[in-house]
Amino acid sequence: MKIQLPSSVLLVIDIQSRLMPAIANEKEVVGNATKLLMASRLLDVPTLVTEQNPNGLGSTVPELATGHARTVFKDTFDACEEPGFMELLPDAAKVIVVGCEAHVCVMQTVLGLLAQGRDVAVTSDAIGSRTSGNRDAALNRMARHGADLVTTEMVLFEWLQSSRHEHFKPVLDLVR
């Protein structure tokens, strides 16, 4: 099933300043998450950002700190277990997930969302871990449990649906 713009929500998990230098392919993860965040702002996609223990891991990286998204501070690895988090997600939304670390907070949150009957798409080129082995194992596990694995460009062009979309050119510029 295609990702529909009106029923999407973008969830950015723990892309934080002190964590990112340790993440394999950090630039690709941050770059793709930034593209999705910029497009979400342009296309009015609701966006949530989580920060895991910001005193220890720092705040969200500057590229993603746009003020467009609502930030949820958490101590739990699974954001779904953070009080009030689930109430921030629209009921019928397809949750588009980006973030770190793939095998910890991303995976536990995705599994939590799936357990609650949510429709989840994990943007595989916008999630990271310190090692590619942990990232790959997390992607495999999330897919086995029912998450769709997608890429940044899949999400962007499914949101647009057509080159006639009024925001086609600015979104296209994000991927060039």
UniProtKB/TrEMBL annotation:
Superkingdom classification of source: Bacteria
SUPFAM superfamilies: Isochorismatase-like hydrolases (SSF52499)
Residue ranges of every copy of the Isochorismatase-like domain listed in the record: 8-153
Name listed for the protein in its UniProt record: Isochorismatase
